[in-house]
Amino acid sequence: MVAQAPGLYRSTKFYDHSEGLSCCFRQWRAGHSHCRLLHGYALAFRFTFATRELDERNWCFDFGGLKPVRRWLHEMFDHTLVVAEDDPERDRLEALGAAGLADIRVLPAVGCEATARFVYLHVSGMVYGETDGRVWLESVEVAEHGGNSALYSPA
């Protein structure tokens, strides 16, 4: 009899574009492109969870435990203006918030790749803690629309 290697189970949770995460940002470093201007998308997020051991229900991860994540996504990306902390126009953009014209979020960086990493770092500890390390967040994908997305995983 041949011993089988332990398997890996994965599950995904997807918050699609209809979730209403209409977010505005700009990629100030893209001086050659219209992406340097304020623009927005209805962002979508895909979380991939992994485990070597299913729970007592034979689940990788209980999606009911993601209610705080969904609330946080809405707080961060629903009708907000995301500003990179190193944006040279940060003061002017934050002034829009002070004037009541925008709901500002300052992130370390902007763009799908940076946003995927930011979300990953926020959610991964929660998943690990909620499952006592049995499950880990393998990756986060952020999509601007059906044609563009970026994925972050720690290695």
TrEMBL record:
Q: EC no.?
A: 4.1.2.50
Pathway given in the UniProt record: Purine metabolism; 7-cyano-7-deazaguanine biosynthesis
Which top-level enzyme class is recorded in the Swiss-Prot or TrEMBL entry?
A: lyase
What domain of life is recorded for the organism? Bacteria
Pfam families (UniProt xref): PTPS (PF01242)
Q: Which reaction does it catalyse?
A: 7,8-dihydroneopterin 3'-triphosphate + H2O = 6-carboxy-5,6,7,8-tetrahydropterin + triphosphate + acetaldehyde + 2 H(+)
The molecular function GO annotations come to: 6-carboxytetrahydropterin synthase activity
- General function of this protein: Catalyzes the conversion of 7,8-dihydroneopterin triphosphate (H2NTP) to 6-carboxy-5,6,7,8-tetrahydropterin (CPH4) and acetaldehyde.
Q: Which family does it belong to?
A: Belongs to the PTPS family. QueD subfamily.
Protein name as annotated = 6-carboxy-5,6,7,8-tetrahydropterin synthase
Q: Look up and give the organism this protein is from.
A: Lichenibacterium ramalinae
